[in-house]
Amino acid sequence: MSFEKASAASPSLKALGKLGCQITDTGTSFRLYAPSVQEVTLFLYQSVGQTAPTAEYSLQKDTSGVWSTILSEYVLGSYYDYQLDGQGPFADPYSLHVATKEPFPMSARSLILNETDLVQRMPAQSVHRELADLLIYEVHIRDMVAKKAIYEHASIYKQWSTQSDSFDHVMDLGMNAIEFLPLAKSVYHEPPYHPDDPESKNHWNPTAINHWGYMTAYFLAPETRHATPASVGDWSAASPHAVFELQGVVFSCRERNLTPILDVVFNHSSMYDQNMLTSMLGEEYFRIDEDGQWLNRSMTGNELDTQKVAVRHLILESLRIWIEVYGFEGFRFDLAGLLDSTLWDEIKAMVNAIQPGTLLIAEPWGGTYRPHEFSAAGWASWNDRFRNGIKGIDPIHQQGAIFQQWVSDGSRATVENWLRGTLSTYEGGLFRESSHAVNYLESHDGHTLGDFIRIAHQGENRFDLENPRSWCSLSGNAMKRMKLAHLALLTTPGCVMLHQGQSFAHPKIVEEESFIRLDHDAYNKDSETSWINWSVLDMNQDLHQYTQGLIAVRQSSAALRRAKDAEICFDHADNPWHLVKIVWGATTKDLYHYIVGLNFDSHTPLHITLERGPWECLVDDSQASNQTMRVVEEPITVPPISGIVLRKLRQ
Q1: Taking the model in full, what pTM does it have?
Q2: Which of 350, 258, 340, 332 lies closest to 303 in space, CA to CA?
Q3: Quick one: pLDDT band at residue 150, thresholds 50, 70, 90?
Q4: Which of 644, 651, 648, 650 is nearest to 491 (CA)?
């Protein structure tokens, strides 16, 4: 698709004013920014099921390119859409809720809601936490409860807010924040899969679905697929259940003292639906090359141009709605390297004016690699160098430190820096301060940590179909590496993130004809591959309890989370795979200082000589607890592929 370049000067954010549908004391206003079109018609429907509109209204365009009209009659609860230059109809990009016709291609109608009523439902309590104190649990809201909810025909949102199982798991583990994969209204059904048809729009996705939610269609509206079903004829989501039920999920987070964080997608828009942005407003919203073609560094078909006023306005309004209407207290920005850097400051200023301390986390790549720039702007970022260095990049060909291997330009010095917060003042560093590092070993992308280790030990991605317990239940060196990886992660300064099921090495299983393959890209698998199988927790209960213990140690040890660079040093041994980190942390007001011993060597024990004690042992190769397990005063030996945490009262 190609577009002509826009020639008119862009208006300011202020000039655009309030866009979308607004109910006021004087009537209902409709405002749409579409400067390049010549005619806009509003269609109004008393019911979503109507084929023909109840009424039609012509909108008038002002000098800033905004089309508008005001209706005096009462239209709350009605539906509407727009026709642009005879094309459409299209739902409003600023919809607070949409009903949809699916499957492919999805079309939508906008529901008229009163935003003021929605904001008034917002509870007062806040769960603000500093970045360094965050223990984030990344979840797909459906995966955690899908098996039970499907069989009970329940709302996924209600399953979270009315049943405590998922929250109980997160809280029992010891995490204090939940990061939900995208919950804005997205396109679920992609074009039919025809790999051999040159005219096909889908040569790559056999399931023809997008499970994760990264194809955002309506940036202010909630995902309706997880709500109580409500259909009228061919239209689904014919009631705003999703608005109120998602509010219930976020409220439940806050009631349980869990910080709610939302993954947001502002680097691209959906491609495979009847959408005004991609169909009619390409020049206002997307990056376009000199030939009039969309740029596509997002690898999703397009790039939103965040230098353009329409995109900035949409992003800021979206974030405002997710804070004021739903109560989210932080955001993770997908492929944030594609966002214009001047927008970062606008976002930070706006969200903190509404809710001081709002958390901003970047996935700092996409076209460019920018964690150092985000840190300079006061944002946190996913720390892929920690992930790659400790775990590895490829389970067969590029293994990391837990396999006694360096990744790319890794060295002892870089490993030490990862373990002090990946600071920009040291080799391989990225961040001005350790709190800007979101350290992790597993996310929705790529192999799980457990599957990475399974494949590395197997030597191939091929497992026994008849006896999955034989490889799903970790043991021996595989279990040791899992524990050692978690020990390294949970004793590193900065923010920590775990993915759903990570504490018990949940696998992402794909059954082939005669064997099992472990999946590394489950974005298109709304199936047993992605859904959490809680029986695996029973298989790997020892790992889960060990991880619980490590989290408890971290929660009770401010120095491990917050120690300044000058309060961390390493005792250098001849063996580069023997790392002994000493943490004082007096500035954190922690009563103790610590020794963290990490033995990445597969064969040789690590011997640690202790200064005068007594030292309390909190973690060894088999147990982890924030309560003293034993007192140590003599030199201590750490077996291969294991670690230890000791503490001593500060004098």
Answers
A1: 0.96
A2: 340
A3: low
A4: 644
Distance CA 108, CA 236 (A): 9
**CA neighbours closer than 13 Å in the CB half-sphere of residue 131:** 25
Residue 149 has a pLDDT of 59
Task: Give residue for tokens 């529901």.
Answer: 111
Identify the CA nearest to 394 among candidates 412, 410, 407, 411.
407
Domain borders along the chain are: 13-119, 563-649
Residue 330 DSSP label: E
CATH assignment of 563-649?
2.60.40.1180
Q: DSSP alpha helices (H): ranges in 7-71?
A: 13-16
Side chain identity at residue 537, one-letter code: L
Architecture of domain 13-119: Sandwich (2.60)
Q: What is the DSSP letter of 527?
A: S
Residue with tokens 């709610």: 260
Contacts of 391 (CB under 8 A, 6+ apart): 400, 402, 441, 442, 449, 452, 485
Model confidence over 568-618: pLDDT tens digits? Answer: 999 988 899 999 999 998 899 999 999 999 999 999 999 999 988 799 999
CA dist., res. 480 & res. 208, Å (int): 39
CA atoms within 13 A on the CB side of 578: 16
Burial of residue 29 (CB within 10 Å: 0-12, 13-18, 19+) is: middle
For residue 103, whether the previous peptide bond is cis, meaning omega lies within 30 degrees of 0, is yes
Q: Do 13-119 and 563-649 agree at the fold level?
A: yes
pLDDT of 585 reads: 84
Distance CA 393, CA 590 (A): 36
